[in-house]
């Protein structure tokens, strides 16, 4: 502290508390709404204190789903989201670990071309080339499958860059020693490089898990079969009902369930997550 | 930049790179090439014949009032999201930087929205502002403002801006905080000894030292506002009412998938790709500079 000004200290806390209130308020209102029956919500202003329908609303949702949205059980949507997020996160990490290894530890023709091709993917977000990408996936017969949900999203320039940056900081002596002891490149990779990358792998895992969980447009397009619905896109089908008011208590319960796992991951692995985020983007 | 100790071989590194390159080629490069190719073609009304039309799709695009309107919406939207997101996050980060009690608690709570999917964030705010049952809509009506984002385009735009900013505050906050904590305390203390007050210290010392972080965040936020906010708009306003919240990336989708106008959608994709390439280039130049200093 540079100087002691009680007024400033109070001001800081007031501003921060206001910030926290803004951040938490929508989530709180959603949770509260999910614990009330439908008529309470439609009869006036949405309440600010939880009601008594917590168990009923959630158990109905998890097992039976919502009739308007095709009745897909939300439990199944959660499962699909988990599968998708885990496959994308592990896939991205596996693919990036080895491609960064090839780029950093080998000298071969076309090395820089490969590097630039990977870099190009940064410039092409799914939303931008959505129609042709969809056509490719449809032609390959990958609609309505976990493969179609995950493989097109598995190439990651971000993760490749993070691992590349990390490998560059690994002392040369390690590779030299390994080579002198007669270890081949793959032996070096699995016995030395991967164990050294543990923290980075964990950090990138958190970020990619969030990325996978929060996918929206892609699952919406490549899955028409309701058994592949993920929870984030499931909400869309619940809100956009044509002829009546959405069943807000169930929509808000779904929203709560959709944001709970990623929020939990971020809070539990906060340190790793912050490290991963700040370092990837450097 | 390069390792001195490397392994020999050609087949092995190529095999290691193959998964990434194959996925990139099939799902990134090929579709991008298709978009480029289709942007110079036009299909007839039944999709039976395609003819080469050169740059006609682009000419049509830039003389289309709806597209130009969408450009305008995107600019207003991105400016609002970027400015508000950065300003609020900077305020919170400067406050959090100096707080001693409860600092980690504040940080934990403030990074929460980062984990929330944009679509979910949109739906949460959509509910709060729902004209018939939303809490904020009622409050506003009590204050004499007739809130109905289903009919009023400006209000719909305000709503998606709020949701987009709410979601992005965490990210900006984390980077500003990291930037602030990297500023040497001795500089600020020296200024304090010379008699500079908190505001003066912030604007003459802290803010200039923070400008690399701010610039980086500026690019990231513009990219976010241009592309990642698609979810928010799709899940809530669907680009309406009218065209009032149709940002460019939403229009690519709606013209392609709903309107089935392939040539126009492809031309729009190409325009957007050009924008991303410029943004990425700016970002990369800046990254290189920061690494070298």
From TrEMBL, chain A:
Topology class, membrane: Multi-pass membrane protein
Family stated for the protein in its record: Belongs to the binding-protein-dependent transport system permease family.
ABC transmembrane type-1 domain span: 78-269
Xref: PANTHER family: ABC TRANSPORTER PERMEASE PROTEIN MG189-RELATED-RELATED (PTHR43744), SN-GLYCEROL-3-PHOSPHATE TRANSPORT SYSTEM PERMEASE PROTEIN UGPE (PTHR43744:SF8)
Transmembrane portions of the chain: 14-33, 82-106, 113-134, 146-167, 188-210, 248-269
Alphabetical list of CDD domains matching this protein: TM_PBP2
Subcellular localization: Cell inner membrane; Cell membrane
One annotated GO biological process: transmembrane transport
Name assigned to this protein: sn-glycerol-3-phosphate transport system permease protein UgpE
Main function: Part of the ABC transporter complex UgpBAEC involved in sn-glycerol-3-phosphate (G3P) import. Probably responsible for the translocation of the substrate across the membrane.
From TrEMBL, chain B:
Keywords: Cell inner membrane, Cell membrane, Membrane, Transmembrane, Transmembrane helix, Transport
Keyword Transport: yes
Any one GO CC term of the record: plasma membrane
Record family assignment: Belongs to the binding-protein-dependent transport system permease family.
ABC transmembrane type-1 domain segment(s): 71-283
Oligomer and partners: The complex is composed of two ATP-binding proteins (UgpC), two transmembrane proteins (UgpA and UgpE) and a solute-binding protein (UgpB).
Cellular compartment(s): Cell inner membrane; Cell membrane
Primary role: Part of the ABC transporter complex UgpBAEC involved in sn-glycerol-3-phosphate (G3P) import. Probably responsible for the translocation of the substrate across the membrane.
Membrane association type: Multi-pass membrane protein
Protein name, UniProt field: sn-glycerol-3-phosphate transport system permease protein UgpA
Coiled coil regions, renumbered to chain: none
One Pfam short name: BPD_transp_1
Membrane-spanning residues: 12-32, 71-96, 108-128, 156-180, 201-227, 266-287
Keyword RNA-binding among UniProt keywords: no
Gene that produces this protein: ugpA
Protein species of origin: Salinarimonas ramus
Cited InterPro entries: MetI-like (IPR000515), MetI-like_sf (IPR035906), UgpAE/MalFG_permease (IPR050809)
A GO biological-process term: transmembrane transport
């Amino acid at each position: 502290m540079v100087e002691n000004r009680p007024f400033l200290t109070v001001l800081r806390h007031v501003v921060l508390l206001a910030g926290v209130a803004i951040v938490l308020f929508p989530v709180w209102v959603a949770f509260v709404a999910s614990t009330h029956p439908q008529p309470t919500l439609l009869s006036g202003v949405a309440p600010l204190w939880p009601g008594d329908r917590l168990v009923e609303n959630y158990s109905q949702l998890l097992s039976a789903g919502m009739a308007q949205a095709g009745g897909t059980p939300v439990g199944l949507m959660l499962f699909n989201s988990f599968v998708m997020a885990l496959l994308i996160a592990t896939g991205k990490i596996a693919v990036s670990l080895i491609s960064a290894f090839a780029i950093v530890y080998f000298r071969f023709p076309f090395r820089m071309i490969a590097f630039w091709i990977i870099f190009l993917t940064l410039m092409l977000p799914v939303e931008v080339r959505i129609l042709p990408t969809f056509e490719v996936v449809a032609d390959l017969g990958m609609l309505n499958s976990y493969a179609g949900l995950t493989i097109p999203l598995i190439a990651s320039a971000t993760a490749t860059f993070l691992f590349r940056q990390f490998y560059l900081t690994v002392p040369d002596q390690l590779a030299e020693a390994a080579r002198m002891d007669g270890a081949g490149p793959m032996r070096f990779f699995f016995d030395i490089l991967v164990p050294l990358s543990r923290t980075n792998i964990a950090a990138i895992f958190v970020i990619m898990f969030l990325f996978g969980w929060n996918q929206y447009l892609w699952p919406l397009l490549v899955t028409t079969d309701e058994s592949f619905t993920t929870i984030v896109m499931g909400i869309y089908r619940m809100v956009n009902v044509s002829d009546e008011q959405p069943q807000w208590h169930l929509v808000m319960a779904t929203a709560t369930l959709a944001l709970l796992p990623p929020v939990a991951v971020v809070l539990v692995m906060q340190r790793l997550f912050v490290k991963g985020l700040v370092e990837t983007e450097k | 930049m390069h390792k001195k100790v490397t392994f020999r071989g050609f087949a092995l590194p190529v095999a290691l790179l193959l998964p990434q390159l194959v996925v990139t080629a099939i799902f990134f490069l090929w579709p991008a090439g298709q978009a480029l190719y289709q942007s110079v073609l036009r299909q007839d009304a039944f999709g039976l014949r395609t003819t080469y039309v050169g740059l006609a799709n682009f000419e049509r695009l830039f003389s289309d009032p709806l597209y130009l309107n969408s450009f305008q919406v995107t600019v207003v939207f991105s400016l609002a999201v970027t400015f508000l997101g950065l300003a609020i996050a900077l305020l919170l980060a400067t406050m959090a930087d100096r707080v001693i009690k409860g600092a980690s608690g504040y940080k934990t709570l403030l990074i929460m929205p980062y984990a929330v999917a944009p679509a979910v964030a949109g739906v949460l705010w959509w509910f709060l502002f729902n004209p018939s049952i939303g809490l904020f809509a009622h409050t506003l009506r009590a204050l004499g403002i007739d809130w109905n984002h289903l009919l009023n385009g400006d209000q719909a735009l305000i709503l998606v801006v709020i949701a987009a900013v709410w979601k992005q505050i965490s990210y900006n906050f984390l980077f500003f905080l990291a930037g602030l904590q990297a500023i040497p305390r001795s500089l600020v203390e020296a200024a304090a000894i010379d008699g500079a007050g908190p505001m003066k210290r912030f604007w003459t010392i802290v803010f200039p030292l923070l400008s690399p972080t701010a610039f980086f965040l500026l690019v990231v936020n513009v990219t976010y506002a241009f592309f990642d906010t698609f979810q928010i708009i799709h899940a809530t306003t669907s680009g309406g009412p009218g065209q009032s919240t149709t940002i460019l990336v939403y229009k690519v989708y709606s013209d392609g998938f709903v309107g089935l106008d392939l040539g126009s959608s492809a031309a729009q994709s190409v325009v957007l790709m050009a924008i991303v390439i410029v943004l990425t280039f700016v970002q990369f130049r800046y990254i290189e500079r920061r690494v070298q200093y």
